[in-house]
Design a protein that fits this description.
The protein is an alpha+beta fold. The chain has one domain. Helix content is 31%, strand content 9%. The protein contains four helices and two strands, in the order ααββαα. A two-stranded antiparallel sheet has the order 1-2. The longest helix is centred in the N-terminal third of the chain and has 13 residues. The radius of gyration is 21 Å and the shape is globular.
C-alpha cells in the first residue's frame, strides 16, 4: 500500500459526506463529468469515480456540501486537476536496432 504524506481529512469519513457523495454519483449517472465534456463516457465499470469539490474544500469550506460545487470525476481527471497525474503507460518505446529487424526478417 502506498504511503501518503497528508492525512485524510476527517470530513470525508462523516456520514453526511458519504450520503452526499452517493447523491452526487447518482445525480451524475455514475459518469465522469470531464470525460462527458470531452465527448466520452466513463462510468464506474471502467474507472474508479470520485466526487470532486470544484472549489477546493480547504479554500471554501462553506461550499463543502453544495450540489453545484460537486462533480463526479474519474480518477484520471481528478488526479490531473490536482496535479497528481503521471504518465506511466505511454512511455515512448526504445527504437529497435535496424540490424535486429534485418536479422529477424532475413533482409
Amino acid at each position: 500500500m502506498a504511503k501518503t504524506t497528508k492525512k485524510a481529512n476527517p470530513f470525508y469519513l462523516t456520514k453526511e459526506w458519504r450520503k452526499k457523495r452517493q447523491e452526487i454519483l447518482e445525480r451524475d449517472h455514475y459518469e465522469c463529468q470531464e470525460c462527458k465534456r470531452q465527448g466520452k463516457v466513463t462510468t464506474r465499470r471502467e474507472q474508479v469515480l470520485e466526487v470532486d469539490h470544484i472549489k477546493e474544500l480547504n479554500d471554501y469550506p462553506g461550499l463543502a456540501m453544495e450540489n453545484n460545487n460537486l462533480q463526479t470525476l474519474c480518477k484520471k481527471h481528478h488526479n490531473i486537476k490536482h496535479g497528481r497525474y503521471f504518465k506511466f503507460r505511454n512511455k515512448p518505446k526504445k527504437p529497435r536496432s535496424p540490424l535486429v529487424n534485418e536479422e529477424w526478417f532475413g533482409n
